[in-house]
Amino acid sequence: MNANPISQTSVSVNIQQVMKRYETREGQEILALDRTDINVNPGEFIAVVGPSGCGKSTLLSLVAGLAKVSAGRIAIDGEEIRRAHPKTGVVFQSDLLLYWRTVLDNILLPIEIKKRDRAAFVPKAEQLLEAVGLKGFGAKYPAELSGGMRQRVAICRALIQTPGLLLMDEPFGALDALTREQMIMDLQSLWLSVKNTVIFITHGIEEAVFLADRVLVMSPRPGRIDLDLTIDLPRPRTWEMHRDPKFIEYMQTVRRIFEAKGVLHQ
Predict the structure, then answer these.
(1) How far is CA 3 from CA 23, 127, 163, 167, 186, in A?
(2) I need a labelling partner for 92 at 20 to 30 A (CA). Which of 75, 109, 154, 199 fits?
(3) 8 A C-beta contact, residue 172 and residue 95
(4) Spatial distance between the Cα atoms of 52 and 220, rounded to a whole number of angstroms
């Protein structure tokens, strides 16, 4: 991705004593999240890492306004969330592109849904495509793109409305190792040019430490925040930083939490 000064207004996120319960078809109650507290400052990149089933995606759905809390409060810029927030964009693990629409049409879909002036957003869509290295691909269809390229389009779609908050739910989980490595570098580059607030869900400790300003470690279900780790590493971060003793120590700190919980074993 090329550096691109796309103007964004970042937001704060305040999560207070949030709990989420589900009821199974058999009537059994499952506590997915338990008394979760998180404060995210405007422009911060937060990575949330934890084992499968710990409530990471549930947390993201609550912040996105796609589900309601069972208890507690979530606010964006001080405004309590009761539905999908207009300042929020979401990127899922699957790109969810519509195969019958071109790349440009997929990016502009949120604009059409909100009945805004499509033509006014075409230049921004093209600017985003150039920022993610897909200049000239606007007329292509999803089937003509690789998995990494489709995920770049999904990121453009999330950014087209200039969201102050970008929520990413394991966006690189379905990609091969080499593509994932490139996407991690590309995301860092784009975020440094945009500087909006990001909450990034991942299973990968390495990925979390490399990308984030802070890494939040969640316990096995019911999910709680076991560790809030500030990552004090210079930016932009290069791949060679994986060999930095400080980077390795951050990774070991997170691993020790999982080992203590029985998630990882020596």
Answers:
(1) 46, 11, 18, 21, 10
(2) 75
(3) no
(4) 8
Q: Is the pTM of this model over 0.85?
A: yes
Which portions of the chain are predicted below pLDDT 70?
Answer: 1-8, 264-266
Give the pLDDT score at 265.
Answer: 67
Other beta carbons less than 10 A from residue 228's beta carbon: 13
1-87+163-266 is classed CATH 3.40.50.300: yes
Strands laid side by side in the 29-40 sheet: 29-40, 13-23, 71-76, 79-80
Q: Answer whether 208's CB lies under 8 Å from 200's CB.
A: yes
Backbone angles phi, psi at 204, to 5 degrees: -90, 120
pLDDT in tens, 139-165: 999 999 999 999 999 999 999 988 899
How is the chain split into domains, by residue range? 1-87+163-266, 97-162
Q: Is 77 left (phi over 0), alpha (psi -120 to 50) or beta?
A: left
Residue with token string 């997170």: 254
Please, which residues have CB within 8 angstroms of residue 54's CB and are 6 or more apart in sequence?
218, 219, 220, 221, 223
* 161: three-class secondary structure by DSSP: coil
Q: How far is residue 174's CA from residue 266's CA, in Å, rounded to a whole number?
A: 26
- Distance (Å, whole) CA 31 – CA 223: 8
The percentage of the chain sitting over the pLDDT mark of 70, rounded to a whole number, equals: 95
Structure tokens, 182: 């490139």
Helices (H), ranges, 165-263: 177-194, 205-211, 245-260
**Beta bridge mates, 229:** 215
